Amino acid sequence: IHEGLRSVLNADKFNDSQRVQIGLPEREGGMCLVTAHDILLPAYVGGSGSVALFYKKCGWPEAQVLYNVLKSQPALVTAVDELNEMFDHNKHRVTVPYLDPDLPHAWPRQSKLTKAVQRVCADDLEAQLVRIDAAAASWFASCRLHGSGAWLHSSPKIALFRVSSQLYRVMLAMRLMVKTPSTDLVARCVCGSTGWQLRYGVHWFSSCRCATLKTARHNAVVK
After folding, report:
1. What pLDDT is recorded for position 120?
2. At what angle do helices 110-132 and 40-58 cross, to 10 degrees?
3. What Å distances lie between residue 105 and 55, 95, 165, 211, CA to CA?
4. Residue 73 to residue 67: CA distance in whole angstroms
5. Distances, alpha carbon 155 to alpha carbons 36, 96, 161, 171, in Å
6. What angle do CA 105, 106, 110 make, to 5 degrees?
7. Among candidate residues 17, 22, 42, the one with its CA nearest the CA of residue 33
8. Which mean pLDDT values do the consecutive 10-residue runs of the chain (223 residues) have?
9. Per-residue pLDDT at 221
10. What pTM value is reported for the model?
């Protein structure tokens, strides 16, 4: 998936933070390219909880035996411990109840566990960017605002949302803060500004006096 997106954006490579962002959902500032690997842990635990709940309700004579076998699986016990540790260390970010290893049928659904893990991952990424790149951190924070990436879900079959492939490539590159193709030819903006912000599209959202793309959600990039 990363290689396919890199080819579309004509990018040399992605850095570690961009790779994490690609695997996050739109609500957390990502690119919606969430893979099974990214959610393997919460999916395994949440799915096991759903199976345990089925065993509790199905009425099969052997259901309790199967229930006990399920909750005693070493891999599941390890996964539950890992999630409990993650959520315990991030109580201020997520509100997920303690996963009781002895009561798998009471565990939250997979979707809730996955959202919590993705929230922690996005918060960790933002905190890391704050330490190493203030502009990238501010840009990523703006991408996490409600509705900022809604266009990623738009259908090209609707004329209102239809754009050229070239423009869509620019939109993707700007969200990920990848150098926009062909911007090497842009040495100076009509407003007189120069610098790396021109190549990454940040300038027209944050500080250009002649463009109309400035919005409150992106003004923090100026800092």
Report:
1. 97
2. 160
3. 8, 18, 47, 55
4. 10
5. 24, 34, 7, 15
6. 85
7. 22
8. 91 93 95 91 97 96 97 97 96 93 96 96 96 92 91 85 86 90 78 82 75 49 41
9. 41
10. 0.85
Residue 146: CB atoms within 10 A of its CB come to 8
Q: Which two tokens stand for residue 140?
A: 């990523």
Closest C-alpha to 106, from 158, 21, 56, 49: 49
* Tokens linked to 214: 């400035």
Q: How far is CA 204 from the centre of its chain?
A: 24
Tell me what pLDDT residue 59 has.
Answer: 93
Residue 167, token pair as written in the block: 């423009």
**What span, in angstroms and rounded, lies between the C-alpha atoms of 89 and 29?**
22
pLDDT at 211: 66
Tokens 């409600």 — which residue?
A: 146
- Give the type of residue at 45: V
**Amino acid residing at 124:** D
**Per-residue CA distances from 176 to 15, 138, 188 (Å):** 11, 12, 22
The rounded distance, in Å, linking the Cα atoms of 124 and 144 is 13
Residue type, 150: A
